[in-house]
Amino acid sequence: MPRAGNTLLGSLLNQSDDIKVTANSVVSELVHRILTLQDFPQYQEFPDYIGVHNAAKQAFFSYYKHYKCKHVLDRGLGEQKQIYII
Length: 86
Hints:
This protein has one domain (5-85). The mean pLDDT is 84. It has helices at 5-13, 27-35, 41-45, 49-63, 80-85, and strands at 19-21, 71-73. Strands 1-2 form a two-stranded parallel sheet. The chain is elongated and about 50 Å long. By secondary structure, it is mostly helical.
């Protein structure tokens, strides 16, 4: 028996071939680490805000590229800034 509402909801949604709900994932941490590259001295020498943000956005799609469905709901924990960029 599921212990939380999000587990039950995820189980129901995962029955669809078009939707997959992930377990707790590392994707938000991956996006966060890409964004923190802006704090490195190498970035400061040649700042490319758009390039870093493009990489962060693409990280989500690349991570789940092998999923055979139309929609992926990532249940990773993240800060508002990380969620906003995706």
